[in-house]
Amino acid sequence: MRGVETARTAGTTDTAGTARGTLPGLASAHPLGERLPAVYAEDELAQRFVSGLDVVLAPLFNVLDCLEAYFTPSLAPEDFVDWLADWVGPELDGSEPLEARRRAVASAVALHRLRGTVEGLARTVRQAFGARPEIVESGGAVWSARPLGPFPGHPVASLLVRLTVPEPERVDRYRLHAVVAAARPAHLPFTVEVLPSDPAGPAGPARPTDSSPPSLPPSPLPEGH
């Protein structure tokens, strides 16, 4: 499909990455010469003059013909993907590769619907760091055929997010802290841990490589809670 190819390749011609460029050899879908009055139909100078304008207008017509591709994260040009990200607010820090940004933009709305849930938090962390975390929370649910049974969970609200990855030292813990802070239930204080994925390596059982950064202690309860 020519239109989809153009959505991917009609990229930028400036270093700032904010302008749509021309495509050599792209024919206009609506040549101006065919729309001139009959008196100019055989006029070579007039036809050559407006053909120069066709070169400028052809990318515009082509963009409009495949406009839906620009709003499809998997097809949109790179700078347009970043613009779409401003619309939907995915958890990005700007260092992610293009394909990761495409996936983040495509899934942002669905993740917003899950914000504040265990599944939403797990998906958000996995999207940002490539691994699904273990989530331990203080809440609980239980049923009993007898009244006055023990309450489930822990009386003090808390949340622990434990991320297990092959190379813990490469994880930006400040970034992890920020991602969890944005996606957690708003009323829960939390801590984060990063562990190696092979705890039984040659050096013996491994310990957590780090917890919440020293300058970022567990988030306190908001005022009024």
Outline of the structure:
This protein is an alpha+beta fold. It has helices at 2-9, 44-65, 67-70, 78-88, 98-113, 118-129, 173-183; strands spanning 134-137, 159-165, 190-196, 200-201, 204-205.
Question: Which terms summarize this structure?
Answer:
Unchr_phage_tail-like; elongated; Putative secreted protein; 225 residues; plasmid; 37% helix; disordered N terminus; alpha+beta; disordered C terminus; Tail_protein_I
Number of continuous helical runs: 7
H/E element sequence: HHHHHHEEHEEE
The separation of the N and C termini measures: 56 Å
Output the radius of gyration.
27 Å
Biased composition (Pro residues): 214-225
Keywords: Plasmid
Protein name: Putative secreted protein
Region (Disordered): 1-25, 193-225
Protein model, in words:
This protein has 2 domains: 2-70, no CATH class; 119-225, no CATH class. The chain is 37% helix and 10% strand. It has helices at residues 2-9, 44-65, 67-70, 78-88, 98-113, 118-129, 173-183; strands at residues 134-137, 159-165, 190-196, 200-201, 204-205. It has a 3-stranded mixed beta sheet with strand order 1-2-3, with helices on one face.
Produce the secondary structure layout.
Elements: H1 2-9, H2 44-65, H3 67-70, H4 78-88, H5 98-113, H6 118-129, E1 134-137, E2 159-165, H7 173-183, E3 190-196, E4 200-201, E5 204-205
Parallel strand pairs: 2-3
Antiparallel strand pairs: 1-2, 4-5
Region (Disordered): 1-25, 193-225
Keywords: Plasmid
Protein name: Putative secreted protein
